[in-house]
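Replying to the earlier thread about multi-chain prediction with a worked example.

Input:
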Amino acid sequence: MPEATLPKATLPLSLGEGFEDVEAAVADVDQTLLDWFATLSPFERLEFVSRRTRLLWEARGSTLE
Amino acid sequence: MDPLSSDLFGLIAVLSDHDVEFVVVGGTAAVLLGAPLTTLDVDVVYRQTPENAERLHRALTALGAEARPKIPERKLVPTQATLETAQGPILLTTPQGPLDLLPKLDPLGNFAALQTYCSRMNIAGKKVLVINVEALILSKQHANRPKDRLALPILLSLRLRKAGGEH
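Result:
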């Protein structure tokens, strides 16, 4: 996990006007998935996403130019 | 570019092995911070000094990087001078996937300015600077593209967990 080395940026909890739907969507985030992803090391997270990306593109039979 | 070869760690490792000074931002940073998002490329903000541009140029040569989109019969690779003076993003393709080099990240600023907003993360032995979740939220809010708005609820959720001391 990251080690805090420098002062943190500050950000208001509310994103403000135009982002009400984004903030409402926080309630729909799959917390079980986040729990599981949090158990992975940073390297494992990258490997998981790289592998999933490859599978998604294979499924679509696509390449990106 | 062939996303089937997407290797996010491989790209970061080559930059790290060449002692390039950079901060991971964007979707790859979100993944490192705990957001299970799909991302194709690695976005980094790099320090624009002659020394770092030289190291970065060597890393790009090792990666076999070339400009994106590709131009048939013509391999375009950014020069060291371009890396040192670029004002906007340099979009590259590599055999390990897309790599986007940014001289700055709006609205936070350049590599030096980002030092306030990042932490050092150990990724399989590579010590890499990664933007923190608050600053990533700010950059996604500023960019405000559809993909940024999709990522924001997850990032906000991660921030709430962090504030609550769960992880």
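Chain A touches chain B at residues 1-11, 15, 19, 21-23, 25-26, 28-29, 31, 33-34, 37-38, 41-43, 45-50, 52-54, 56-58, 62-65 (CB under 8 Å).

Feel free to reuse this layout for your own posts.
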